[in-house]
Amino acid sequence: MKTLVVYDSAHGNTQMVAQAIGDVILGEVNVRRVGEVTSGDLKSVDLLIIGSPTHGGRPTAAIQGFVESLPGPVSTVRVAAFDTRMPHAWVKLFGFAAIRIARALEGKGWSVEQPVEGFFVNGRGGPLKDGELQRAAAWGRSIAEQRT
Ligand SMILES: Cc1cc2nc3c(=O)[nH]c(=O)nc-3n(C[C@H](O)[C@H](O)[C@H](O)COP(=O)(O)O)c2cc1C
Predict the structure, then answer these.
(1) CATH number at residue 80
(2) In whole angstroms, what separates CA 129 from the centre of its chain?
(3) For ligand 1, which residues put their CB under 6 angstroms from it?
């Protein structure tokens, strides 16, 4: 199985989550910052995982652009989405990046692996809350093991 984890990250927290996810998935795994994804990374990929920090309830512009650049669904490719976010109740008013990534993918006809997940940071610059890298690893493993 070939997996590509594409992420954006302003302060490094989403990068750490992306790497934790990539580290537990078997087979060929590439973890790439958005903008550094090559056509070779995308070629023959079986599982594409997209992650972004939540900025104003949305993914970063770079991740939005990456999702927009994707073609419609490919039967051999599965897609999944995650974000990093703050735990405060008020941020729920704005929504979360992973849900928007999933909606954008679904708008293109993709069906997105469930659950879409968010991982918590203590503040805008982090750090990640205790246990979140372990939770990310468990999520990545479960997504990779799902079969449609
Ligand atoms: C401009 C800006 C807007 C943000 N908006 C939200 C938000 O709407 N909801 C939320 O949960 N976190 C928000 N955050 C906090 C981010 O979730 C946090 O910075 C991010 O998870 C850290 O990931 P990174 O280290 O990969 O950049 C915002 C952060 C910035 C810088």
Answers:
(1) 3.40.50.360
(2) 18
(3) 9-15, 53-57, 84-86, 91, 94, 121, 124, 126
